[in-house]
Amino acid sequence: MRKLALLLFLVPGPLLADVVYLKGGGKFTGRIVEQTAERIVIDIGDGTIGFSMERVEEIVKGPSPLDEYDARASKLGPQDVNGWRSLAQWASMKGLSVQSRAAYQKVLAAAPDDPEAREALGFVRVNGAWLTEEESYRARGFVKYEGEWLTPAEVQLAQSNAAMEQARSEAEKRASDAQYAASMARQQKQEDEKRAREEADRMRNNPVYWGGWGYGVTYWPNPAGVPR
């Protein structure tokens, strides 16, 4: 019992959360928000994930970082900038990105120019003004192309390369189609020639082809037996 107590004392905080062990391996740590005889749902911080109880091997319940976040957040007032900033930092270290962003948004609500909160929420300072990432790129003349921010020159180059690649791909397809068609034509010709040879052999080996009365000079029967 003393060893067990020591082990529990040494277990870090995140391991005391609800843990859902799945059959065949794998586990999810967080806070169980729903559990029935058929299904269980656990909040892992960045969202929730659910499983059929048929897949669950074991459930170990305990206080989670989400519980601690809620407890700490409930003690902070709306103007407690330092408190919300500290909580945001703590949540980030615990892997609670959603909660960390929520805490930083509380910071901005009280201190709109707080640099740490602005940067953590993806804002960029351009010419003394805080802009979102998209606004900052557009302000600097960038264009979003296929999910990436590029300069107009880079976009033009990318489009040119894409057009060249498409032309090359189409040329390769045409060449491949032509090669396939030629191969099929050769195969058809070979089959036609084979059938022609087989037909010629069949006709040569058929006695009727030579007259029906045998090979060589044909004699027609007559009463006198005299050849005509």
Structural overview:
By secondary structure, the protein is of the alpha+beta class. Among the domains are: 57 residues, SH3 type barrels, CATH 2.30.30; 64 residues, no CATH class; 33 residues. It is built from seven helices and nine strands.
- Adjacency order of strands in the biggest sheet: 4-3-2-1-5
DSSP strand (E) fraction? Answer: 15-25%
Shape: elongated
* Class by alpha and beta content: alpha+beta
Name the helicity range.
Answer: 40-55%
What's the helix count? 7
Give the biggest sheet. Answer: 5 strands, antiparallel
* Number of E-state strands: 9
Which consecutive residue ranges, at least 5 long each, have pLDDT under 50? Answer: 1-15
Rg estimate, integer Å: 42 Å
C-alpha end-to-end distance = 129 Å
Averaged pLDDT, please? Answer: 82
User: Which sequence of SSEs, written as H and E, runs from N to C?
Assistant: HEEEEEHHHHEEHEEH
Produce the secondary structure layout.
Elements lengths: L1 H9 L7 E5 L4 E9 L3 E5 L4 E5 L3 E5 L4 H9 L7 H13 L3 H14 L4 H6 L3 E3 L2 E3 L1 H7 L3 E3 L2 E3 L1 H53 L24
Antiparallel strand pairs: 1-2, 1-5, 2-3, 3-4, 6-7, 8-9
Helix pairs in contact: 3-4
